[in-house]
Automatic annotation (TrEMBL), chain A:
The keyword Membrane applies. Pfam families: HAAS. This is DUF1700 domain-containing protein. Keywords: Membrane, Transmembrane, Transmembrane helix. The lineage of its organism: Bacteria, Bacillati, Bacillota, Bacilli, Bacillales. It comes from Cytobacillus solani. The chain crosses the membrane at residues 80-112, 119-142, 148-172.
TrEMBL record, chain B:
Residues 14-82 form the Transcription regulator PadR N-terminal domain. Signal peptide: none annotated. It comes from Cytobacillus solani. InterPro entries: Metal_resp_DNA-bind_regulator, Tscrpt_reg_PadR_N, WH-like_DNA-bd_sf, WH_DNA-bd_sf. This is PadR family transcriptional regulator.
């Protein structure tokens, strides 16, 4: 593989990243080849490893950056999880190990996902049921005002609980996705380092 | 090497080298590789992360008709380095007190 091909493949593998990140990485490795000298191109490629390995390390690092900041959000955490899964899939590890890792990651992501989904649905259904109950209460107001009051009261309580539970939901989502992303990053580091030791 | 190297230790090494003098990507990688058994592709993501975290800045300098991008440590990089160094010394002493304890009692 020539240096041009190598950098081209690397660029393709990084295409999920913002342009600025792609260019910075390509510039770095372009300079790296220059510094090593033209005659050492093959050796540099051998030492760097495949473009897949190089790109997966960049993707994984990109994913977890900023997770410790105050400004980190649930959305950032979730996208970090996604990026690391992409990185793991892109990393050139042996198939049996890859399958194992994919199953493990899948199980854990599914577990966290279903927990969050349950929480979310509970929230939404409380709010919705509350609204329905309030509407029903108003519907019978001319027939039996006591029943009406009862339904409106229940409805307000249910929607109130639903709304109150919303901030904790966001917080829990953020924490779970952040720790999930960090755990995946550690797993990723372990896999790629193990691979290096084996060489 | 049988001991696992964490990413904080890698950060500390990079910051320490840059605290001494500015360096460009290739030479920095070689310097770190002299003491740590990492693959050559490990360093770029680390540099990028430290740069994004405002611990490092870069500047370009022409060299033989092309560009060399130098990394320089920032004041917050320096305090991060001192913080990591302190933690390392503390950790090292604790490990030493256990590991070296075995020698005198053979």
């Amino acid at each position: 593989m020539s240096r041009e091909e190598y950098l081209k493949v690397l660029r393709q593998k990084l295409n999920k990243l913002p342009n600025e990140e792609i260019n910075a990485a390509i510039d770095f490795y372009n300079e790296y080849f220059d510094e090593a000298g033209e005659e050492n191109t093959a050796e540099v490629i051998a030492k760097l490893g495949s473009p897949a390995l190089v790109s997966s390390q960049i993707l994984a690092e990109y994913a977890v950056k900023g997770l410790d900041n105050e400004s980190s959000t649930a959305k950032k955490g979730l996208s970090a999880v996604w990026f690391i899964i992409l990185a793991i899939l892109a990393s050139p590890i042996a198939l049996p190990l890859l399958l194992l890792v994919v199953c493990l990651v899948f199980a854990v992501v599914l577990l966290c996902g279903s927990f969050l989904l349950t929480f979310f649905l509970l929230n939404v259904s409380l709010a919705l049921a509350g609204i329905v109950s309030i509407v029903a209460g108003f519907a019978v107001i001319t027939q039996h005002w006591q029943t009406s009051l009862f339904f409106i009261g229940i409805g307000l309580t249910a929607s109130g609980i639903g709304i109150l539970l919303f901030p904790p939901l966001v917080l829990v989502t953020k924490n779970i996705s952040n720790s999930l992303a960090k755990w995946l990053k550690r797993l990723f580091d372990k896999i790629t380092r193990r691979r290096k030791e084996g060489m | 090497m049988s001991f696992q190297l964490g990413s904080s230790l890698l950060d500390a090494c990079v910051l320490a080298i840059l605290a001494k003098e500015d360096a460009y990507g290739y030479s920095l990688t070689q310097q770190v590789r002299e003491v740590m058994d990492i693959s050559e592709s490990t360093l770029y993501p680390v540099l990028r992360r430290l740069q994004k975290g405002d611990y490092l800045t870069t500047y370009d300098q022409p060299f033989q008709g092309r560009n060399r991008r130098y990394y320089r440590i920032t004041p917050s990089g320096r305090s991060k380095y001192e913080e990591l160094l302190e933690e390392w010394i503390d950790y090292k002493q604790k490990i030493d007190s256990v590991l070296l304890g075995g020698i005198n009692h053979e």
